[in-house]
Design a protein that fits this description.
With 501 residues, the chain is α+β, with helices and mostly antiparallel strands. The protein has helices at residues 157-161, 192-195, 210-215, 238-243, 279-291, 332-346, 356-367, 389-399, 417-423, 456-468, 471-481; strands spanning 2-3, 6-7, 10-14, 18-23, 50-53, 56-59, 68-74, 82-89, 98-107, 120-127, 133-138, 153-156, 168-175, 183-191, 204-206, 224-234, 247-255, 299-305, 307-309, 314-316, 319-320, 329-331, 348-349, 374-382, 404-410, 430-431, 434-435, 441-445, 496-498. Residues 249-475 form the VWFA domain.
Length: 501
């Protein structure tokens, strides 16, 4: 990727196969090129997005917008010989998420109603590249007045001008009629840049009815519209909080009830096939490999439920897979998988299938950190019908107040009607007449993602995408409900990551 004296860098993007994403310009005669060309890439929290710079590989979740990431290049033929460093900087496009708050009033609008005054409202249109206009906002109707004051409204800047501050904005003023044949009073044009000046003489607009102006020589206007206030509010995104240092804490909980079948038999959902991961391991790996990139230390608590534990055979619904009650943390997803495999050799599958203890376990940690610095994601992988439905609903209603989300993956062929009920997409979960404050549960049945062609990589990518798609919105809904704003992005303190080429 680097030619002597004429540096350039090619980037390749991959979800399944590598495709050329972009190539920088060539800069002649320098060993310290500062490339100008920028590339816009769609970012999806729920997908595994890989980027390759030549032979340097990285995951998009590993670098935060605003922070530099350094990659050392090494000579492929001479061990230890360095060939320089690539510095990668990412930033999030911001004007796509700003909202403009505006309020208008009008004065001396034309009277259109025979028995009264007018019932005016305004319609805003964004101009398009081809000269056409697209409606982007409509105010409420103010009844029986020629001097209306409309309510303040918010509109995304992207919807208003698509990021082009000088693009024409057309505003039409109408008199509302019950039958829908609204009478046109007049129109005017402006731009986002003009509106951003706020209340001033520049933002008093004459409402012109062109047909009326052509007919009447003494026509001046059909009234005026005045901008009373203008402000811009930025909608904070999931990435804003990640940039500010919010950590995603990932916890996994695995069902060890007897309905899974004897792990030593091939019919068991826990069977350890030497040639292929079982459904539990695949679901854990698919979801965990994406979430782990948002946790700095990659240490994750891993729990089991519904088993008898040695040495006394007591039943537990929240035991550590690594056997260490004081420190249930596993190192990365591979550490969790190893602890899972080991626990199958020591515990006895039993029952019943209780979710509440696990949910309450994670909720206790979430309740201790409600300042926006941490968010907790619990992945429950289970095979069967919940035994403690009432307690689980109560636990979810309580957890909905906390910085927490729950993912449930159902494995096996059981009916999962109760899980769908917990999902809360159609009807919000309730307990004792109390509705959950937020929808925090996402459920998917694993069997829906088994690819008939046997392509497990593709199947698991689809699984991860569907179960993680709601996490950013659930995350933002908590932060907004608590009025928590993201911390300023941390100063770039790049840490070198060694990648041999």
């Amino acid at each position: 990727v680097v030619s002597c004296g004429q540096p350039a860098v090619s980037a390749f993007l991959s979800s399944r196969t590598w495709e050329t994403f972009g190539r920088t310009e060539v800069i002649d005669n320098t060993l310290n090129p500062d490339f100008v060309r920028k590339y816009i890439m769609d970012y999806f929290f729920e997908e595994k997005q890989n980027l390759r710079l030549g032979k340097v590989f990285l995951k998009c979740g590993l670098f935060s917008p605003g922070a530099d990431v350094l990659f050392s290049l090494h000579h492929s033929g001479i061990p230890g010989k360095k060939c320089g460093t690539i510095i990668l900087t990412a930033e999030e496009l911001s004007n796509c998420r700003d909202s403009a708050m505006m309020q208008f009033c009008a004065n001396k609008l034309d009277k259109k109603d025979f028995f009264g005054k007018s019932d005016p409202f305004m319609v805003f249109f964004r101009s398009n590249e081809d000269g056409t206009f697209t409606i982007c906002h409509k105010t409420e109707v103010v009844k029986n007045t020629l001097n209306p004051v409309w309510k303040e409204f918010a509109i995304p800047v992207r919807a208003l001008c698509n990021g082009d501050f000088d693009r024409t904005i057309k505003v039409e003023v109408y008199d509302w009629d019950r039958d829908g044949s609204h009478d046109f009073i007049g129109d005017f044009t402006t731009s986002y840049r003009e509106l951003a000046r706020g209340q001033s003489q520049f933002n008093v607009y004459e409402v012109i009815n062109t047909k009326k102006k052509m007919k009447k020589k003494k026509y001046v206007n059909s009234g005026t519209v005045t901008l009373l206030s203008f402000s811009v509010e930025s909608e904070f995104t999931f990435l804003d909080y990640i940039k500010g240092g919010t950590q995603i804490n990932f916890t996994v909980a695995i069902d060890f009830t007897a309905s899974n079948g004897n792990p030593s038999q091939s019919t068991s959902l826990h069977y350890m096939n030497p040639y292929q991961m079982n459904a539990y391991a695949m679901a854990l790996k698919a979801v965990g490999e994406i979430i782990q990139d948002y946790d700095s230390d990659k240490m994750f608590p891993a729990l089991g439920f519904g088993a008898k534990l040695p040495p006394d055979g007591r039943v537990s619904h929240e035991f550590p897979l690594n056997g260490n009650i004081e420190n249930p943390y596993c190192n990365g997803i591979e550490g969790i998988l190893e602890a899972y495999h080991q626990s199958l050799k020591t515990v006895q599958l039993y029952g019943p299938t209780n979710f509440a203890p696990i949910i309450n376990h994670v909720a206790r940690y979430a309740a201790a950190v409600q300042d926006g610095s941490q968010y907790f994601v619990l992945l429950i992988i289970t095979d069967g019908v919940i035994s403690d439905m009432a307690q689980t609903k109560e636990a979810i209603v309580n957890a909905a107040k906390l910085p927490m989300s729950i993912i449930i993956v159902g494995v096996g062929q059981a009916e999962f009607d109760a899980m769908v009920e917990l999902d809360g997409d159609d009807i919000r979960v309730s307990s004792r007449g109390k509705l959950a404050e937020r929808d925090i549960v996402q459920f998917v049945p694993f069997r829906d993602y088994m690819d008939r062609t046997g392509n497990h990589v593709l199947s698991m990518a689809r699984l991860a995408k569907d179960v993680l798609a709601e996490i950013p919105d659930q995350f933002i809904s908590y932060m907004k409900s608590r009025g928590i704003k993201p911390n300023p992005a941390k100063s770039p303190t790049p840490q070198g990551k060694q990648h041999k080429e």
